[in-house]
Queue: 3 jobs
Job 1
Amino acid sequence: MEPATPDQHGGIEERIRLLYDTFGQRKKMGLPEPDLRRPLFFLHRPFLGDLDLLTIFNTKRCKYQCHFCHLPAKSPKALVSEEDILAQFQFVVSELKHSLSLITRFTMSNEGSILDPDTFPFGTLRAIVQGTRELRMVRRIVMETRLEFMNRDAIFELRRCNPRVTFDILTGFESKDREIRDEFLYKQEPISSFLNGLDAVAASGCDLTAYVLFKPSPYMTDEEAFQEAESSIDYLVEHCQSRRIGLTIRLNPMYAATGTKWAEIARTTPTYKPPRLTDVMKLAQKKSKEGLQLYIGISREGIDENWGSYLCREDYSDALIRPIKLFNERKSLDFGEVLGKMNTGLRLPSTSPAGSNG
Ligand code: SF4
């Protein structure tokens, strides 16, 4: 075989780099998809020891307009047919055809609520769960939804469609602070209805994965952000333990999403500073040492303002991303070395470009 010329080496490297950037962890998200037979996004990724297939279905827009969230803006306003949603699922499965036997977990989202039958017809959901029986390594199905749509009978029916899997409900708790929930986030979900939803999660035998936002108010200091996120996590732990619900926390540093009221308040607040990623890491490490299962969500979902995320803070270095990925894969739960170097003022080497979807 002829040795490759330097030019050929450069060519293949460049082509693979392009493929990796287009289809790997840094794949673009946040864009609308005009073809209703295609999902908004999908990604095969490691997640807390699992190999997860995340699929964001392209379905009717979430009717809520939380003040911090601009995700539903890219979804269609009309109901998407069962046939089209099933075609989206089939498309994703066929794109992954050579690694179907590696998928252990399937996460379903639609930038809203998978369990809301007005946006995601229940018959379609049943058909997809039935289809996952043939993804034979899948042991967990995660469905993202507001808890008001929890329905014990529906979960029992889904369980009959695939008895092999555990169901995990993924929901945004965000904060336990009433004022933050009502005024800044405009969740339209009083804590009392969240707790009723937790009762339904327990009655259905599901696990819970809950988002907690780090620094959900633009008026918070760094210290207040740490304390508030910790007390929101503790609140969830207490209420899940008392109901015997298995809990995973997704700790997300708050970012200002373009076009939201939250971003407008942050932009016009002179004291506003986005969260420090190292604070998020310290809290994640502390809670995981207490035995909590926790994942750090570093994705800005392709819709952040360039002044409104952890990337803008003075502690940020792209060398923080790799340790966070190892943490999320349960390969190292200790940030001691990287945080120690930062405390002693050592410059961290660059390792990977920021902006992965995690
Ligand atoms: S946070 Fe959830 S419920 Fe609120 S607008 Fe976004 S997708 Fe809808």
Job 2
Amino acid sequence: MMLIPSVLTAALALLPSTAFAVNKSASELTSYNPDTLPYNGTMNFCIGAKNDNGACKSTDDYLADLNALANYTDSVRTYATSDCNTLENLLPALSQASHNFSAYIGVWPTDDAHFGQEKQALSQFLPKYGVNNIKGITVGSEVLYRNDLSASALADRINDVRGLVKSFGFDVPVGTADSWNLWAAGAGDASIQASDFIMSNDFPYWQGQNTSNMTNTFISDTLTALDRVQHVKGTNNVQFLVGETGWPTGGPSYGEADTSNDIAKQFYHEALCQILKKGIDVYYFEAFDESYKGTDSNVEPHFGAFYSNRVPKFSLNCTQAS
Ligand SMILES: *[C@@H]1O[C@H](CO)[C@@H](O)[C@H](O)[C@H]1NC(C)=O
Ligand SMILES: *[C@@H]1O[C@H](CO)[C@@H](O)[C@H](O)[C@H]1NC(C)=O
Ligand SMILES: *[C@@H]1O[C@H](CO)[C@@H](O)[C@H](O)[C@H]1NC(C)=O
Ligand SMILES: *[C@@H]1O[C@H](CO)[C@@H](O)[C@H](O)[C@H]1NC(C)=O
Ligand SMILES: *[C@@H]1O[C@H](CO)[C@@H](O)[C@H](O)[C@H]1NC(C)=O
Ligand SMILES: *[C@@H]1O[C@H](CO)[C@@H](O)[C@H](O)[C@H]1NC(C)=O
Ligand SMILES: *[C@@H]1O[C@H](CO)[C@@H](O)[C@H](O)[C@H]1NC(C)=O
């Protein structure tokens, strides 16, 4: 009996550390029996660059974030490199936390001046800290959804960042994150072509879905996005993950979607724990409530899985709902 865990551990250690879509087509995954899957996806968290009071996070603030998350994950996602000195302050924290963390770091691709500052931060801090703790670089977040750039202009920026990173001698996956429906509609094909990985964002709350329909909406939308990525890449073996999802615990309803800790918990344990069993990694948006984003009358400050004091709002353990 004692042999089984070590055999499993050895097998798991051979799997690539980067995200991939279990090598099965989206349609196979729709009806996939999770008990026969050789591995699960992992739950991870998006973290903001500012503290609850709106001040930029220091390395110590990131360390406190990571240590609060350490029982649940070993990876986080951030959004910019130069803004709030995110890269400079985050990178040392990743290896100093109570266990070793990795991160998907973000680069803001618009406008030209901002993109230049972001690349400058990469040039300064990747050679300084190395890339061992960097899982990938997302160029842009919902750029296509906001119509900030065309899919081919975003592809150019993705290639630009990959070239820059390679020029330092580093080989780091470079991709992007956008709303599931843009991927599904084929509006981002040129960006998919240019990306080493694709993140799909999906918030059934913003689709006005109630508790009866939120889980099937999430699973179906995510697999529809995956299907398009597999189609464009011409293989099922793609790096695909959920880049943002979550449910607000306060603020107003949106359509039939209400807000509460109970609904967020139900969404987490039904929808997200289920997609993990399909082998897809999730980055939950977001780790901590951010009061500076607004008041109780809007939802933005209430997306945290944890309160802003870094106490979890509900069980985050997929094998133990309460
Ligand atoms: C996925 O399948 C391809 C083709 O059969 C194979 O080369 C690759 O190693 C597989 N990847 C994983 C993660 O199983
Ligand atoms: C995947 O996670 C489930 C719990 O959600 C667990 O029962 C199962 O053993 C896990 N599978 C693997 C291969 O680790
Ligand atoms: C992590 O889990 C351990 C064991 O359950 C517990 O003692 C500790 O307080 C937890 N740490 C945090 C930061 O939640
Ligand atoms: C931390 O993890 C990364 C990859 O996840 C690895 O490359 C690095 O060597 C690890 N660092 C330490 C100190 O274990
Ligand atoms: C959720 O919405 C669906 C479709 O509108 C409806 O059939 C169902 O009764 C609703 N469930 C709840 C709990 O409101
Ligand atoms: C419930 O979710 C399914 C699957 O995403 C969708 O087809 C259906 O339109 C949704 N129902 C409502 C009332 O939105
Ligand atoms: C999650 O729950 C399982 C089952 O109760 C337990 O064995 C495990 O230690 C828990 N993990 C954490 C991080 O609390």
Job 3
Amino acid sequence: MKLNAIELLIHDHHSVRKKLIKLTETSGREKAKQRRLMHDIQTQLTIHRVIEEDIFYPAFKTNGGDEITYFEAKRQHRTVEDFVLPDLLESQGHDAIFARISRQLRRLVEQHADEEEKVMFRQAREKLSKQELHALGSAMQARKKKLEKQYAQNAESSHRR
Ligand SMILES: [Fe+2]
């Protein structure tokens, strides 16, 4: 399936949203499930951030996309990856805190995805041609595949250690 840049990102948003809902619905007794979900969410968010910041956002900005939207989106990525995710990982085993932080992570990601979909993607549809959006989609898909492979290999080798 060939998706354009926006379809691809919306598809990713949908998938990570579902996982975050699952995470906030797990109980402290489901540690293995929590760990698996957290690992998946962390990997997905990182890959999403890389393809957006390396490929989509620069195209958005150079084609006249709003600068505040651009910087705000990057700042939201930073908040999630540098502050909330590390705290979540650290809170494993402290069920009440873990539940609070996972709800916070879910809210932040939902807000970020909503803003992208309602503001940034709408602008991108106006500023970028269909061909450009398709070319960006293909570039992002290729990068995503590469990163997924890399993460899977890393997970495997850390498993063997
Ligand atoms: Fe994003």
